[in-house]
């Protein structure tokens, strides 16, 4: 991601072969159909499930053909899916590019998204959604402070806002939180957030919407993070892993870019894997890598990718330039990307996907991987008080104008018990209308680690001594999006 973008944020046409799946509907799914083995919503409309190292729509493997979409960039922090005029303006361009997915980094979890999600569904387009926002996100400089019940209430409210749309593809628990050799200490909090999101989805009775992480293009720890998100008990593992990758710079190739090495590296990975950002701007960007993503030499490990990014935000990565209601191409970018996506078919016979991948061993502590005081598979205990959200729902989201959560916690931490993350009771049948009013009372499920007593039973309290932050540049949070700093 571009450091300047983050600091600024903290300071203040349809293709014939696009829709190869049955039409999806953005509407609430019933509890029974949402959790069915086939992974389809009411009316036999496809929702996305995972099997082995791949995504599936029904019985057909699903390949992500996407674009990162956040008009205005991270500094304006607006919700493009809450404004029908914005999404309806851009959907025809998504179709021309040959997309089936958009990724959105910031939404207003207090707003209604029915119209835009319905329009996207009509166009055959799924949503990959980041659950963080500028004020409600993990701060890698003090992750133990920013991981708190206020933060998780906002995260859970975002899940509530989108879980009942059948074209919600997946949720990202974080984006590039680990972005350097010395920021891996935040990894346990990313994984804990992923754990908590998966438990919330299960406790609230939603369909099993995949939850995972989008990793920065940092060679020293990107694969270590992949192993970390796939190690330990099932309740604490991720549903998928995604990488931001800018190594293919035109002119290039499968071997010259190092993508062949990536495929070998992840050949035995047990989770679905895809590129959550790609699109190097060195030289002339002709998007030849977009076609390579859907060849079987890639699809045996990867399930497609998301091009960065739809709109020009002053960083040189935009495909289109937006001026009010006017959308114009940036050079030949839309033509080149659309040509690659629309002329490349999905592989046949499952594209070489595997169900034989193995759960990973947690990385050992090293100069490149330091997650202390949480070593091995140990994770932070869930914040006290979040059990009411599992039982009653998150309630109204704070939106983009709330007080924020990054300073709402403390340096007092504890290690989670063995039961943390296990959902043993379903409190609701996928109804997002219930509230998580702090005045509510009642015991949580006997086996749920959501209650403060269960989450901390047997935990060892720890105190972290944290020094002062050195300038705003270190206050980098997980909501920020953008190309990797090359």
TrEMBL record:
Q: What is this enzyme's EC?
A: 2.4.1.-
| Subcellular location, record wording | Cell membrane
State the top-level EC class.
transferase
- Recorded GO MF terms: 1,3-beta-glucanosyltransferase activity
Q: What is this protein called?
A: 1,3-beta-glucanosyltransferase
Q: Enumerate composition-biased segments (Polar residues).
A: 355-375
Q: Which SUPFAM superfamilies match?
A: (Trans)glycosidases
Q: According to its UniProt record, what is one Pfam family this protein matches?
A: Glyco_hydro_72
Q: Which UniProt keywords apply?
A: Glycoprotein, GPI-anchor, Lipoprotein, Membrane, Signal, Transferase
Similarity comment:
Belongs to the glycosyl hydrolase 72 family.
Principal place where this protein is found? membrane
Composition bias, kind Low complexity: at what positions?
Answer: 424-455
Q: Name one GO cellular component term.
A: plasma membrane
Tell me the superkingdom of the source.
Eukaryota
Per the record, which residues fall in region Disordered? Answer: 331-410, 424-456
Protein role: Splits internally a 1,3-beta-glucan molecule and transfers the newly generated reducing end (the donor) to the non-reducing end of another 1,3-beta-glucan molecule (the acceptor) forming a 1,3-beta linkage, resulting in the elongation of 1,3-beta-glucan chains in the cell wall.
Task: Kindly state a single biological-process term from the GO annotations of this entry.
Answer: fungal-type cell wall organization
Give the bilayer topology.
Answer: Lipid-anchor; GPI-anchor
Cross-referenced InterPro entries:
GH, Glucanosyltransferase
Name the species this protein comes from.
Hortaea werneckii EXF-2000
């Amino acid at each position: 991601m571009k450091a300047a973008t983050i600091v600024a944020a903290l300071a203040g046409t349809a293709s014939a072969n696009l829709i190869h799946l049955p039409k999806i509907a953005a509407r609430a799914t019933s509890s029974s159909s949402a959790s069915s083995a086939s992974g389809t919503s009411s009316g036999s409309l496809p929702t996305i499930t995972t099997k082995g190292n791949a995504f599936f729509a029904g019985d057909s493997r699903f390949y992500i053909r996407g674009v990162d979409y956040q008009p205005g960039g991270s500094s304006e922090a607006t919700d493009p899916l809450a404004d029908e005029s914005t999404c309806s303006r851009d959907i025809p361009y998504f179709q021309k590019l040959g997309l089936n997915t958009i990724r959105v980094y910031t939404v207003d979890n207090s707003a209604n998204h029915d119209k835009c999600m319905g329009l996207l569904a009509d166009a055959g387009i799924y949503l990959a959604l980041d659950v963080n926002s500028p004020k409600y996100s993990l701060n890698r400089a003090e992750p133990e402070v920013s991981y708190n019940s206020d933060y998780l209430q906002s995260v859970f409210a975002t899940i509530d806002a989108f879980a009942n749309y059948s074209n919600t593809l997946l949720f990202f628990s974080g984006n590039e939180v680990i972005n350097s050799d010395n920021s891996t200490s935040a990894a346990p909090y990313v994984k804990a957030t992923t754990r908590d999101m998966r438990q919330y989805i299960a406790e609230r009775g939603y369909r099993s919407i995949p939850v995972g992480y989008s990793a920065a293009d940092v060679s020293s720890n990107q694969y270590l993070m992949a192993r970390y998100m796939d190690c330990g008990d099932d309740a604490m593992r991720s549903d998928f892993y995604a990488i931001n990758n800018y190594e293919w710079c035109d002119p290039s190739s499968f071997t010259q870019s190092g993508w062949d090495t990536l495929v070998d590296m992840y050949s035995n990975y047990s989770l679905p894997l895809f590129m959550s950002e790609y699109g190097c701007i060195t030289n002339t960007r002709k998007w030849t890598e977009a076609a390579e993503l859907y060849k079987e030499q890639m699809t045996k490990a990867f399930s497609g990718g998301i091009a960065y990014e739809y709109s020009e935000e002053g960083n040189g990565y935009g495909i289109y330039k937006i001026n009010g209601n006017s959308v114009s191409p940036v050079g030949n970018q839309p033509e080149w990307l659309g040509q690659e996506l629309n002329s490349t078919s999905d592989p046949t016979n499952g594209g070489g996907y595997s169900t034989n991948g193995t759960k990973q061993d947690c990385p050992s502590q090293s100069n490149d991987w330091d997650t202390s005081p949480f070593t091995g598979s140990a994770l932070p205990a869930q914040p006290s008080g979040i059990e009411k959200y599992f039982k009653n729902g998150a309630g109204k989201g704070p939106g983009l104008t709330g007080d924020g959560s990054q300073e709402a916690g403390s340096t007092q931490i504890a290690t989670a018990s063995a039961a943390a993350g296990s959902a043993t009771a379903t409190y609701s049948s996928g109804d997002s209308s219930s509230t998580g009013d702090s005045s509510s009372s009642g015991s949580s499920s006997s086996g749920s680690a959501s209650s403060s007593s269960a989450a901390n039973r047997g935990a060892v309290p720890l105190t972290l001594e944290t020094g002062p932050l050195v300038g705003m540049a270190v206050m980098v949070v997980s909501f920020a999006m953008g190309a990797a700093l090359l």
